[in-house]
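Me: I'm a chemist; would you kindly supply a protein sequence with its structure tokens?

Assistant:
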Amino acid sequence: MALPTSLTPFTFLLSSSFLSHILLIVAVSDKELLLGFKDSIENKDVLSSWNESVPPCSPKQNNWPYVQCYKGHVWGLTLENMRLKGVVDVQTLVKLPYLRTLSLKNNDFNTEWPYINGMQGLKALFLSNNKFFGEVPAQAFQDMKWLKKIHLSNNRFTGHIPTSLTSMRRLMELKLDGNQFSGSIPNFLRPLKSFTVSDNKLEGEIPEGLRDMPASAFSGNEGLCGAPLESCHSKKQSPLSIIVTVVLVVVALLVIGAVVLLVLRRRREQVPDPDPDPDPGVPEENPPSMIHKKARSREPSEEGSHRSRASSRVSKRDNLMLSFVRDNQEQFDLHELLRASAQILGSGCYSSSYKASLLDGPVMVVKRFKQMNNVGREEFQEHMRRLGRLNHPNLLPLVAYYYRKEEKLFVTNYVHNGSLAIRLHGYQALGQQSLDWESRLKIVKGIAEGLQYLYTDMPSLIAAHGHLKSSNVLLNESLEPLLMDYGLVPVINQDLAPEIMVIYKSPEYLQHGRITKKTDVWSLGIIILEILTGNLPANFLQGTGSELSMANWVHSVVREEYSEVFDKDMEVTKNSEGEMIKLLKIALACCEGDVDKRWDLKEVVDRIHQVKETDNEDHNSRSSSSNASEVQVKQTQSGEVSFSIDG
């Protein structure tokens, strides 16, 4: 029915302001809902950046971090890698009608399944790498017809795979790996582009619609059969065939027993040989791991026997289980890894590293650790998931791991540029140029930022890295540093840790038998001195109790001339020398023997960021100022060296 003509002008005059008012109401409503969701989180301080004085979304921009907007409405909520705890307040999120993406990956939510089926407009749900537990109801996804991506990897879900997933006509990605789902895999109505249920407790025949998926999508489920895995006929036997097999085995044992008795009786009747041949049947020791064997050179005639023994060792399905901690990584199983061409990268008492080139796949690095056999499976897996949640451009991400009581394998991507140690000390043999000052400063800043992130994201660890040295810093194509072997102190055998980890070489451990949160700062100082001087720290370790350390050597030289310390292959210009001296002083402050006087990591990182590539001040005045600045050194009765910096 048409409006009276007397009301039409009034409606027209207010139409634009009315629309603005409606938008304001929706925005305020979204703000209240998100603040209510925030209140349901135990450690809600991590969302303190949400500015309550403005709405989360304006018609043309996003106002709150982690909130994605579309035309002034909340479209996505991405809260990842934040260690969030508490209850997922779904009832609040349901009231956000435009919400299409919800990602809570890599947090610490420890609750039962959140009932999200009221969020019927949702297109993507990412809950991987949390601690969700219990059964997922069969109808958990009923009426959620718009869902395209569901990632539930690496939680503690149990029970059957929800049948409501099978009727979702838009579903493209489903990741359920790393849980405890049991029963059979249901048949899906439409083909999926990405699917994995590896490392669960599933059984039965793989549905026909999923048989085009790679074998790695189903690995770690002993009861599964059918393409692309073994045929079900080869795994299952009828009760009659089992009875027949048992009877045949019993008969065979009786026959063998009779033959043995007959042989023994005849031997008693014969005169014993006075000079018998030695027994050739000496049992052979178990062969080393397949990766280790592939890396070693061996005679061609031995190749076949080694391969046959290796095949028998990996025939059990539990030996093919790789646990992936990254959703965005191409997955493969251990069998594919063992078939890859391998090249040894390094080997020591602590670990061995191998480069593995997968067939039609990426190049990976497999690191085999020998000193982790005191760690239980659950504790180890929990810590690996924690490491898998770390995400920073200056950390080499863990891709997957393999657990056995006797050995642990870590899988990472291969970095072609090699380590900082090789780039600093072996560049001439590789036909490369020496690193210039600009590149070295960039590397130092990246190392500091990566270390600071570790301490921010793993505050409970006393030494968040623990093994910081130049060989554990890789360089990518743009010379950005990538820290590796970080966060391993909790899983290393503690009785052997002092012989292995760098932090146990620090002054506080050697003098007082302890490490602190400043111990990694000492390691950072040593690596900065190595970068600036081009000298290996090992050159200054002349045995237990030696006073000749790299920091002491630097001090003895700078008393006369700073420039004598710097690497002769690094170009030192008048415009950069002042900044290089700044960084040198920071390194010496990191190497302070007295932990109480040593700078903490935050101050070190702040000071490093103040160092520039060039010094715009007059070089002569800068040089006189630098020469006036002194590094004071004191030696205590215990022999511990203390540095203090003036100027």
